[in-house]
Design a protein that fits this description.
The protein has 138 residues and is mostly helical. The protein is built from six helices and no strands. It folds into two domains: 89 residues, no CATH class; 47 residues.
Length: 138
């Protein structure tokens, strides 16, 4: 069951980065985000109504601070990649470097905030990730 969402995540991320790199440099990055979010709002609303749900106000009331934080985080992710690509970041390595650094950060977050075990194997993997970032950066 996990293969389908992983496949969708990979395909969506490929499209995401291709689109991020293709946003016109002369366009204000935040107007690009306005168009992105208007499209995402419409697509999400359509999918909401196509899936099983309770009344819209009941579903909306279930939202908490995490939904707002996620919206802010998504804004940061999107504008940062637009800026990375506008600064000359490579499509083939920018996302890879960011995601490796993200994995390292999540290792720490998982250990500190969620009490996940940080094993010698994970530390070795993190060291390989750091070596990979160094190799990709030159």
């Amino acid at each position: 069951m996990i293969l389908l969402p992983i496949t969708v995540a990979v395909l969506a991320n490929v499209l995401y980065h291709m689109a991020s790199k293709s946003i016109p440099a002369e366009q204000n990055a935040f107007m690009g985000l306005v168009v992105n979010y208007a499209t995402a709002l419409l697509a999400s609303a359509i999918l909401f109504f196509m899936t099983p749900h309770e009344k819209i106000l009941v579903e909306a009331a279930r939202s908490n601070w995490a939904c707002v934080l996620m919206g802010l985080a998504i804004t940061g992710v999107e504008v940062s990649f637009v800026m990375i690509y506008r600064a000359g970041g490579s499509l083939s390595t920018a996302s890879l470097i960011v995601n490796i650094l993200l994995a390292l950060a999540m290792l720490v977050v998982g250990g500190v905030f969620y009490h996940e075990q940080i094993t010698a194997q994970k530390i070795f993997g993190a060291a390989l990730c750091i070596a990979g970032v160094v190799m990709l950066s030159f």
